Amino acid sequence: MARQGGLLKVVGKLDDLSFYKSADGYLVRSKGGVSADRINSDPTFQRTRENNAEFGMSAAAGKLLRTALRNLMMTASDNRVTSRLTRLMTDVKNLDAANDRGERHVHEGFDLPEGKAVLKGFNFNSRAILSGILFKSYALNTTTGALDILGVIPRMDLVSAPGATHVTFKAGWSKLDFQMGEFETVISNSVNLPINNTASDINLTHAAAPALATGVHVFTLQIEFYQEVNGNQYSLKNGGYNALAVIDVV
Q1: pTM for the whole thing?
Q2: Where are the domains of the chain?
Q3: How far apart, in whole angstroms, are the C-alpha atoms of residue 147 and residue 185?
Q4: Cα separation, 14 vs 39, whole angstroms
Q5: Which candidate, 199, 192, 191, places its Cα nearest to that of 136?
Q6: C-alpha to C-alpha distance for 154 and 152, rounded to whole angstroms
Q7: Which of 82, 171, 216, 224 has the fewest CB atoms within 10 Å, i.e. the most exposed one?
């Protein structure tokens, strides 16, 4: 893989070269590699087949979580969250000690406390780490999903987006069955505060717990900034300050 230089940037194919744009700029790579038929049948590529099978399961697990939290991620995620989640799910899958190489599963990893610990603290927006946006402790009840943040003074306890006049807090409670590929997510009430020096208690609750019979409970907290103009609040979607993070996994 090489980076394109010069003023003219090319996208497309030319002979054995592929020109494309990525998050890292305009790149070029040459066509090559082994045919899919040989990879699927040649004993030499047994390890490759095992890697591919496990990578696919990790990618699917990451997609399941992203789908479960899509409504919250729309204003609080970065352009590398897919690859970062796939790597994380690979780490969880690697904890599966019950199955052979090539047949390890993410859901087996999540059966262990160590697997849940891997996901806890994950930030969907790497440009807005929750601990770098909110400087106030919170209390989560994993039985009811209630999340309390007491005595929040927005101007002191938050790193606010430039131009923001208000901030909204939401909590997500998801239950995911990574074996069956199923999920259910419930989202709490929203608490919207002006960014000033007034102390407020934030109490986020859910009408009911996710009803999915089996799976892992994933709790998230979102902080989203708004700007008020003529009485209306508009979300600041610059991506640099809206935070969404996994605060617990049980």
Answers
A1: 0.82
A2: 1-32, 41-119, 130-249
A3: 16
A4: 26
A5: 199
A6: 6
A7: 82
DSSP class of residue 143 equals T
Greater pLDDT, 215 or 30? 215
The separation between CA 245 and the C-alpha centre of its own chain, rounded to angstroms, equals: 7
Please give the CATH topology (third level) of the domain spanning 130-249: Immunoglobulin-like (2.60.40)
In this structure, which long-range contacts are made by residues 48-55, counting pairs with CB atoms below 8 Å and at least 24 apart in sequence?
49/102, 50/101, 50/102, 51/102, 53/102, 53/103, 54/90, 54/93, 54/101, 54/102, 54/103, 54/104, 55/86, 55/90
Which residue, among 95, 28, 32, has the nearest Cα to 58 in the 3D structure?
95
The tens digit of pLDDT for each residue in 206-249 reads: 999 999 999 999 999 999 999 999 999 999 876 789 999 999 99
User: What share of the chain has pLDDT > 90, as a percent?
Assistant: 71
Q: Specify the amino acid at residue 118.
A: V
Sheet holding 17-22, edge to edge: 2-3, 25-30, 17-22, 12-14
Reported in sequence order, the residue ranges of the chain that DSSP labels E, i.e. its strands, are 2-3, 12-14, 17-22, 25-30, 139-140, 147-152, 166-177, 182-187, 191-194, 200-204, 216-229, 232-235, 243-249
Nearby residues of 118 by Cβ (< 8 Å), 6 or more positions away = 88, 91, 92, 95, 109
Residue 48 has pLDDT above 60, yes or no: no
The candidate with the shortest Cα–Cα distance to 176, out of 69, 83, 76, is 69
